[in-house]
């Protein structure tokens, strides 16, 4: 879909088909592309076909980057066309697995909320907050929907504020407070004949829309390119001229961490790391009509991977594995002394 195309005029079935074809050309990006295709099918109200794409990803022999996200999306989709029991079983499995990514938590909790399972939704949001944010000094941006969703559901349940709700209020930047935005009585004001009540509701809706626009306008990360050891060895064997860019794998890893710390110190937001593979890099070079041995192609390749949703946020969350793939925690590896 072109960025300047109004959603009103999108042929969602055609867009899903295009994304499926693209996934066949770029198998390393298949997970990201097929999830987009499934979203278009859901918008086209072809939910069974969307489920088939989720099943295709889950049955793939290629390990998924975020299998719990795929499962959560499948559960939410199934529930929308009558498969409540299967959706509930998947949601239970996602909660039991306690993923480190906030997105699956938010999706299953909002699915419960959308079907009036408010107690279960509140419990799910709370489990996510405890799992992801305990002993975390500053909640990462990706976890904000957990806190905001929890606040919303608790407001509907009439529960008193607790520490997590206070934290959500602190993180909320809109001029209209969360308590107002999440007021269960708001829906009544939409049918009011009182101009003051209607004007107040319009102001709240504008503030809410501003928050959504801010989230959607967040750019893809400023990404640094990472080559695993085996990939870097293959890359340099095929294109020895790139040895000046990568004297050794150890130095390559050190440069990544130092570059990201310098960017962070300069105030650059939304930093990330993308992992390259030689076949993907060669395909990108061919699409650009450039030799893979051209060093100027490397940052373009990194930017393209980030735009495809391939970037991992840097720095990793507390206790998460290091981005280098060593198997150690970030704090015990490249994050030591940060």
Short description:
Helices cover about 60% and strands about 5% of the residues. It contains 16 helices and 3 strands.
Summarize this structure as a short list of keywords or feature phrases.
3-stranded mixed beta sheet, 16 helices, 3 strands, 59% helix, disordered N terminus
How would you characterize this protein structure?
- This protein has 338 residues and is mainly alpha-helical.
- The chain has 16 helices and three strands.
- It has helices at residues 12-25, 30-43, 47-58, 67-80, 84-97, 102-114, 118-133, 144-157, 163-171, 178-181, 186-189, 195-216, 229-238, 249-265, 278-288, 297-307, and strands at residues 222-226, 271-275, 312-313.
- The protein has a three-stranded mixed sheet, sandwiched between helices.
- Residues 1-7 have low confidence and may be disordered.
Explain the layout of strands and helices.
Layout: H1 12-25, H2 30-43, H3 47-58, H4 67-80, H5 84-97, H6 102-114, H7 118-133, H8 144-157, H9 163-171, H10 178-181, H11 186-189, H12 195-216, E1 222-226, H13 229-238, H14 249-265, E2 271-275, H15 278-288, H16 297-307, E3 312-313
Parallel strand pairs: 1-2
Antiparallel strand pairs: 2-3
Contiguous runs where pLDDT drops below 50 for at least 5 residues: 1-7
Biggest beta-sheet profile? 3 strands, mixed
Net shape: globular
What is the alpha-carbon Rg in Å? Answer: 22 Å
Secondary-structure-based class equals: mainly alpha
How would you state the average pLDDT, rounded?
86
Strands, total number: 3
Number of H/I helices: 16
Q: Strand fraction band?
A: under 5%
One letter per element, helices H and strands E, the order comes to HHHHHHHHHHHHEHHEHHE
